[in-house]
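Changelog-adjacent note: as of this version, every example in the card shows the full chain rather than a window. The one below runs 290 residues end to end.
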Amino acid sequence: MDKETLANTLRQYNCKSPVAGNDLSDPMEFNLMFAISIGPAGTTKGFLRPETAQGIFVNFKRLLEFNQGKLPFAAAQIGNAFRNEISPRSGLIRVREFTMGEIEHFCDPAHKEHAKFSSVADLKVLLYSACNQMEGKSPELVTLGEAVKAGLIANETLGYYMGRIYLFMTKMGVDRAKMRFRQHMSNEMAHYASDCWDTECQTSYGWVECVGCADRSCFDLKQHSKATGVRLCAEKKLKEPRVVDVTECQPQKGILGKTFKKEAKVITEHLACLDETLVLDLEHRLKEDG
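Full-length structure tokens:
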């Protein structure tokens, strides 16, 4: 719902602050990214990065070339990130500037097995699944191999990195009894993720997320490709040639240029971004309405 609908709903049910019992203010739009002005005149708007991962995604094409065009491969990065935290508190847990490190592992979406998964498959870790959270049950000790086999963890690649996180955390001195992997529930799972687990540690502030491990699919690459027009994907040789039907717009640029002048480029770019459903719908309307 939009902020007006949300405000009306809050007033309709006379919602109050759960802590102090005070009236709630009207909802407002809030950007968790820091907006900045770029250039001598400050007319160009930009944002400080909220995570380091996007630097890996925008360099995907170059990184793929470094790996001779083959999947899988991974890239790691460490650096500062900035988030416009609403209410900084809890010491170093909720701050507006912090150092973070990220690893992005790229693999064939049809083959998410990992060659080294067997090295961590027998690790017994404390898993707090989404089902257990919904049913009010406690976390369970399960081997990563069993969790992947049962479909609790989406795939071997995700399970492998959860195992490596576990080994790293314990090597750093984290008490195994005060560490768990909590699965994101459906109402908190990012829309682009197929599975996500947070490594949480029990501290004086309660259970705190220290590491996030998610299968982000190819959402980020698609968004960067859509915005820049640069093809960000990998290719592999097939055993046998395969014929695939592709439906796309092929605009007649000469006619568009004469008719729409300066706007022709924008129209051409828009047509190039249409998916198959929209292309077929456009074709149908052209046949019907001319």
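Structural remarks: The beta strands are 35-38, 44-47, 73-82, 97-106, 124-128, 140-143, 179-183, 195-203, 206-215.
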